[in-house]
Amino acid sequence: MLHNWYSFINLIFIGIFALFPVVNPIGSAFMVNPYLDKLSDTDRKYAIQRITIYAFFICIISLFVGHWILELFGISIPVIQIAGGIMICKMGWELLSGDKKEKTTNVDDGKAIADILFYPLTFPVTTGAGTMSVVFTLSAHSSNANWKTYLINTTSIVLSIIIMCVMVYLSYSNAKVLVQKLGNNGKKVINQISAFLIFCVGLQIFVTGVKAVFAGH
């Protein structure tokens, strides 16, 4: 029994430490913030709740059936990385482009934001191919012939996903406050830095996917 509890707690920490770098709730919060900046408090709260829920279900689906879904459609993780990287680069470029910036960030009502909550704000910005890869790995790590052990291991991973989603919610909810404290000039600087980081993150994901594709041949 003691060993099971040790394994349970150990897997929770493994899950959190494995997911944190790829989800990066703090960094992602500043990337998503420009899109939520002009929403009312009610719409912003709703948007963040939906992103958190979507992120949770992406992780849970990846944990239990994600691998088989990808195999069913013949899609590999590197391909998802390439496609997701292109989309994130596109978002970053639109935010950096002066003539498109106002159009991109002028999301001032719940109906407009609803169109981008799942794609691309949840996937691939919040939980992308890297998150799916980590969840696949955790799923394989938790597998066990003994169903009780498997249940304990899987429960611990689900809890680590829940904890990570709570971190996402808290980070996204407080990003606006942190940016506002910097003032208008500071806000513009943060938004520009966030846009540049979005582009760089997308480019890095794209390059990683391309390297993985060529490494597989």
Mean pLDDT: 84
- Compute the gyration radius: what is it? 18 Å
- Estimate the global geometry from the Cα principal axes: globular
**Helices and strands, in N-to-C order?**
HHHHHHHHHH
Report on the architecture of this protein.
It is a single chain. With 217 residues, the chain is an all-alpha fold. α2 packs across α9, α3 crosses α9 and α4 runs antiparallel to α8. The radius of gyration is 18 Å and the shape is globular. The termini are far apart. The relative contact order is 0.22.
Relevant terms:
217 residues, globular, single chain, 10 helices, 88% helix, mainly alpha
What order do the helices and strands come in, and which of them pair?
Layout: H1 2-23, H2 25-36, H3 41-73, H4 77-96, H5 98-105, H6 110-114, H7 117-126, H8 129-142, H9 147-180, H10 183-215
